[in-house]
Amino acid sequence: MSRSKVLYQCQSCGYASPKWLGKCPDCGGWNSFSEEQRVTGLKRQGTAEPVALSEISASTGARYSTEIKELDRTLGGGVVMGSVVLIGGDPGIGKSTIILQSLKGLTKLGKVLYVSGEESPEQIKIRADRLNIASDEIILLPETSLEGIISVAQKINPKVIVIDSIQTIFSIELPSAPGSVGQIRECATKLMFMAKKNSIPLFIIGHVTKEGAIAGPKVLEHIVDTVLYFEGDKGNPFRILRAVKNRFGSTNEIGVFEMQGSGLKEVDNPSELFLSERPENVPGSVVTVSLEGTRPLLVEIQALVTASSFGVPRRTAIGVDYNRINLLVAVLDKRLGLHLGGMDIYVNVVGGLKIDEPAIDMGIAAAIASSFKNKTIEAGTFTFGEVGLSGEMRAISQAETRIKEAAKLGFKKGVVPANNTGSVKGSDIEIIGVKNVEEAIQILLF
Ligand code: TYD
Ligand code: MG
Question: How far apart are CA 158 and CA 189, in angstroms?
Fold first, then answer.
């Protein structure tokens, strides 16, 4: 019995079903199925030769600098030849901009083929002028068909390929629309084969859906070697480039940029930037130290606690986990007797950062207590530490790195978990070890 040629696929996770479904049993998405052609008749293309590990030369792992330090760092020290890098992010966040800027360094490798399915060459030229990039080695190709791209690539033999964006590219061999899971998988796979065969880096730009996943996400993330997400608020000039998958490096590195009139500028000292507009001696503001990859980052956490005018108080968390706020509010209520039950509580990490690390618990708790009691925390003081359910302060990793960074920025006093005090020696910053939140709050809000 021959199988039907048509199948239905979830456009967000790639789950396939012979029937149309209203809800995806895999990812739970509603109304995400659309018709795709079943790919049949995969052909074997010769047999691969087995090789001894010791015989493989490591030179294939050579890295090339994009000459953007923050991007190199996020990539794990530069671009690896033959690697496929996916850059995802909301529309307008700066994906095309960072790629274009990186070409300044990458044109050293030779010709760059910049495939643009979204913008005309004129539009790209205007942007390149703005970014002060002019090179004969950058070849623009306004093409959306995969077959066309591959044939041009074979002709001009580029040393780097950029696809902007994968959602606009389609293969004529598939009947489904550009941007569908089938098309994205087919195009990304063919392009990846080309990159691996010629040992050239391939950059793929991908848009992100409302839910925060790259459209056709899982399929694409499996195909590529490195996934970088560009994060940031539209209304805020700061942009964070985060590695979420990296076959050639660590996944917790970040790069920090600021969007300016002439493109993205690297931010060498993000802590300074994030603290630059901090109001002094205002209740509800506290500085804590988070660790992003290998980098300590001083950030300001703000809280606003006001009497609620509704039956159910509001709790709003921006940049931190909502459940964490609820937990810390419960701890403050129970252990310190702060009556937060009838209060609206807003917590915000300044600068549009998103932090997902228990080390900032103490910062959040201190900000809430400070706003509630309307008492300020001294300007030169910081705090960090994980808060347990019984109000105990738990030690966190790499306390020394964090304290050093704070000392570098002129902080005078740190309130940290007692078990973390041993790690600091010889710095002229006053470090106070505390065993629980109660002690910490007493010292911070004198
Ligand atoms: P872009 O790279 O086109 O975003 P994406 O490719 O992710 O959709 O960036 C677009 C935004 O960046 C746009 O709103 C304008 C802003 N921008 C600047 O502020 N300065 C610049 O030099 C450039 C090139 C863009
Ligand atoms: Mg773009």
Answer: 18
Domain residue limits, the chain: 3-40, 64-268, 273-445
CB-CB contact of 125 with 104 (8 Å):
no
Q: Tell which one of 127, 214, 240, 259 to mutate to probe ligand 1, the residue whose CB is within 8 A of the most ligand atoms.
A: 259
Name all residues whose Cβ lies below 6 A of ligand 1.
89, 91-97, 127, 130-131, 259, 261-263
**CATH classification of 64-268 is 3.40.50.300, yes or no?**
yes
Quote the strand ranges of 72-225, DSSP E: 79-80, 84-89, 112-116, 138-141, 160-164, 202-207
Q: Where are the alpha helices (DSSP H) in 9-160?
A: 69-75, 95-106, 121-130, 146-156
CATH classification (class only), 273-445: alpha beta
Which pLDDT tens digits describe the chain residue by residue (446 residues)? 456 678 888 877 778 898 999 998 988 888 888 888 776 666 666 777 888 888 877 665 678 899 999 999 899 889 998 899 999 888 889 999 999 999 988 998 899 999 999 899 999 999 999 999 988 899 999 999 999 999 999 999 999 999 998 989 999 988 888 888 888 888 999 999 999 999 899 999 988 765 555 555 567 888 899 999 888 877 788 888 988 889 988 877 888 899 998 999 998 888 887 888 888 889 999 999 998 877 888 999 999 999 998 888 999 999 999 999 999 999 999 999 999 989 999 999 988 788 889 999 999 999 999 999 999 999 899 999 999 999 999 999 989 889 988 988 889 999 999 998 876 666 678 999 999 999 999 999 87
| pTM as predicted | 0.78
Compute, in angstroms, the gap from residue 94 CA to the centroid of ligand 1.
Answer: 5
